[in-house]
Amino acid sequence: DAKTTQPNSMESNEEEPVHLPCNHSTISGTDYIHWYRQLPSQGPEYVIHGLTSNVNNRMASLAIAEDRKSSTLILHRATLRDAAVYYCILRDRDGGSQGNLIFGKGTKLSVKP
Amino acid sequence: NAGVMQNPRHLVRRRGQEARLRCSPMKGHSHVYWYRQLPEEGLKFMVYLQKENIIDESGMPKERFSAEFPKEGPSILRIQQVVRGDSAAYFCASSFSYIVDEQFFGPGTRLTVL
């Protein structure tokens, strides 16, 4: 699987938008971009995924660069509950990695009240 | 619709004992994955199973660790003769299929080896 690069940590104020960047310059044409997050002392949870077009769901938005070499997870209004480690993960559409997720170090997001 | 269930949530073992970790996937999911998270580290893939089959065990330590997902019942991760280095959080995830589908994670089992 192609590698992703994320900042180690970011800070945000409550109720402000947060933009979490991810670089994946070696992404292949069949790689989906997935985001998961892990709240303290919990298992990871799925946030969003996309291939080429920007995506929105109730949790977040995913903005994908036109060349697909980078993407940004957008939390529109951060809450204290959004404090977590956010992981950007590439997954081959054809299941080339047999399905397992490859977690990097992720970005630790702190949210200040 | 219950999520992925893991038990026990906390497990304490002495060196040399066996640890058995159980995972019940979400209803309708036949793909199960086990991950390990050592203290202050990220999650590492261990093994991927479908009903009665091990599909990928490339992340499993060569000795003492085994996993199964029988036709009936939960998936089991078994660690024989535990050592202090096995102390970690073990997470199970399940999915409907392995291609692209999101994985749903359980709350984890925190193993402490004394």
Question: Any chance you could write out the topology, listing elements then pairs?
Answer:
The complex is a heterodimer of chains A (113) and B (114).
Chain A: E1 9-13, E2 18-23, E3 31-38, E4 45-50, E5 55-56, E6 61-64, E7 70-75, E8 84-92, E9 107-112
Parallel strand pairs in A: 1-9
Antiparallel strand pairs in A: 2-7, 3-4, 3-8, 5-6, 6-7, 8-9
Chain B: E1 5-7, E2 10-13, E3 19-24, E4 31-37, E5 43-50, E6 53-56, E7 65-68, E8 75-79, E9 88-95, E10 104-105, E11 109-113
Can you put this structure into words, describing what you see?
The complex is a heterodimer of chains A (113) and B (114). In chain A, 0% of the residues lie in helices and 46% in strands. In chain A, strands 1-9-8-3-4 form a five-stranded mixed β-sheet, with no helix packed on it. A four-stranded antiparallel β-sheet of chain A has the order 2-7-6-5, with no helix packed on it. Chain A has strands spanning 9-13, 18-23, 31-38, 45-50, 55-56, 61-64, 70-75, 84-92, 107-112. Chain A has 113 residues and is mostly beta strands. Chain B has 114 residues and is mainly β. Chain B has no helices and eleven strands. In chain B, the strands form two sheets. In chain B, strands 2, 4, 5, 6, 9, 10 and 11 form a seven-stranded mixed β-sheet that branches. In chain B, a hairpin with a 6-residue loop joins strand 7 (65-68) and strand 8. Chain B is globular, with a radius of gyration of 13 Å. Chain B starts with a strand and ends with a strand. The interface between A and B is medium-sized, with 23 and 25 residues.
